[in-house]
Amino acid sequence: MMTRVYLMSREANEIEFLLRGLNRQMSLTEMDDQPWRSGSLTGVLLATPPASAASIRAFIQKQSSPEAQNLPAKHCCDFLFETYVWNYHAIVPLVHEPSFRIEYERYWELKSGSSEKNATAATPLVLAALWAGTVICTQSDWDLHCATYEREEAMLKLYWMAFRALRISNFPRLPTVETLSAYIVLQSTSMREEEPLSTASFVGVIVRVAQMLGLNREPSLFQASLSTTAAEVRRRVWWHVFRIDVLVALASGLPPLIDRDSWDVRMLSEVRDELLGTVAALQYEEKLREGSCQPQKVLDPDSMVSPASIFARGKIEDTLFARELLNKTFGPKPMTSDDLKSTQQELERFQERILKTAKRITISTATEAYENNNELNAWAKLVLWAMGDRYWWYMHSPVLNRAISRAWSNLLPRVIHNCRSFLLKYICLAACHEFQRWHWSWPGNHQPLHAIILLLKEVERDPDGVNAQSSRSIIDQAISLCGPDGGISGAQGDHIVPRALLDGGQEAWNLITRLRLRAWIKAGLNPDTLPTRAQVVQLAQMQLIQLRSEVESGITPQMNWPGLELQDLEVSPEFDDPLSSNDTFSPNVNWQDWDAMFGNIE
């Protein structure tokens, strides 16, 4: 209780500071020491950018030079803008792409002095999009298009310029939808699920600003009419704020900030951006709301939907379901056997809905557009499948509760099966090179912490169980994909994508490592034997080929992942100090608290 009160007080203080202190423009000298001195929001507008401390210090020292204020050349910025559209907007839509493209060109007209205007409302968002492009592009693409620039330096420069544009625009004292979107891009792109209270301390700000802008209200009900595209952009920004709030609540164990009765926003449209507002699109949306037509598939004749828009809508369905689970968690009554039964039914219905949504996306397409291409379609389909398995971990603790475990012990294998299935899909998303464009999101933002810990607890509880070896193999494959900073990381060739963590995030993975050591030793296994990353990547690529074949044949996908025989595999360098036979294993974990938290079946 005290922790929650402290966090609410901290959030109120941060918002009060921002609203009182940002009514004036700050000079460059005043701003020099502020943007990345701390990961906290107290006293600053933005958190630390994802760069090394040495790069940050070197960049701050060069801020006084005139060239430090210059953007990269336009050809490089064009590449970064397209990267944002293809790698970011395709899966996190915050803008109307045709309109935003026009704003981007207007920004360059302003830079060249050919425009009569001396400002544009979209400047912070344009700069934030360019910064996001530096973060999420692959290294090979960067070398091809922007080889004359140092990537980390360009990243910090654009971060600084976007930050300064937000300051000058008086955000959040005088917010707009564009400046809120810019702030969200700058803050959420490098979110880490292991650090919900440090990297996501901005959530209170975006929720309050969204409410100040009225984004929590359905725009079609406003007295002053908005264009179809403006209304859809407002919905997109609101739903992303809502999703961030839910994800942080799931990761932190704290209640969501958005009250369940404080919003009435309509679901996102599935119509492609260029068709929004057309008569045909408006008629299709109206028929959908009335239930007089079925949702279109991508391959339907004259289809107006795209895989990107279907995925965005499926992601919101996932968020709404997760919010319902949170409502149960923070409800006034403990879960009973009847609650468990209804939750199981809800999980099954949600899994059916999300698989039905995924079936509307075709993997193979002759189209090569940011919202419809082979790589995006396969990625979106696989993420939606993973979402169908994702929340079964929620059933684990109540199933192990002594009061109801005897009546529901037969449900435990189902929970374990779905957690294994989710982790296998996650490994495929993190390991397959076809999905490099979106590694900033999966595995960058999202980590399978609940699934890994649940499987670890089960193999520790029953090391000789029927599926124990399979679970250990899957856990080892996930651990093999971890980077040097902790957490599962993507890779580009032999280069592991950096995924910097603070102390809290590193401790989460240290805990997982210690849990694995205890479980493996209890099973009489060598905990230092792991598959190599290359072996896991090869398995993931084989699985992706199998999934494509099953989908094209009309078969419901099954993750029948082959197990690895570990006895002849190399030892991962992260575990290069094996325990000797005389060593005593004593992990830094209070196992009484751990077992009390997760329960035991007697």
Automatic annotation (TrEMBL):
- Principal cellular location given in the protein's record: nucleus
The Xylanolytic transcriptional activator regulatory domain, residue ranges: 199-274
Q: Does Nucleus show up as a keyword for this record?
A: yes
Q: Where in the cell is it found?
A: Nucleus
**PANTHER family in the record, alphabetically?**
UNCHARACTERIZED TRANSCRIPTIONAL REGULATORY PROTEIN, ZN(II)2CYS6 TRANSCRIPTION FACTOR (EUROFUNG)
Source organism of the structure: Mytilinidion resinicola
Q: Name one Pfam family in it.
A: Fungal_trans
Q: What superkingdom heads the lineage?
A: Eukaryota
Q: Carries keyword Nucleus?
A: yes
Which is a Gene Ontology cellular component entry for this protein?
Answer: nucleus
What Gene Ontology terms describe what this protein does at the molecular function level?
DNA binding; zinc ion binding
Q: Which residues form the signal peptide?
A: none
Name listed for the protein in its UniProt record: Xylanolytic transcriptional activator regulatory domain-containing protein
Check the record and name the InterPro entries matching this protein.
Answer: Sec_Metabolite_Reg (IPR050613), XnlR_reg_dom (IPR007219)
Q: Name one GO biological process term.
A: DNA-templated transcription
The alphabetical list of record keywords is:
Nucleus
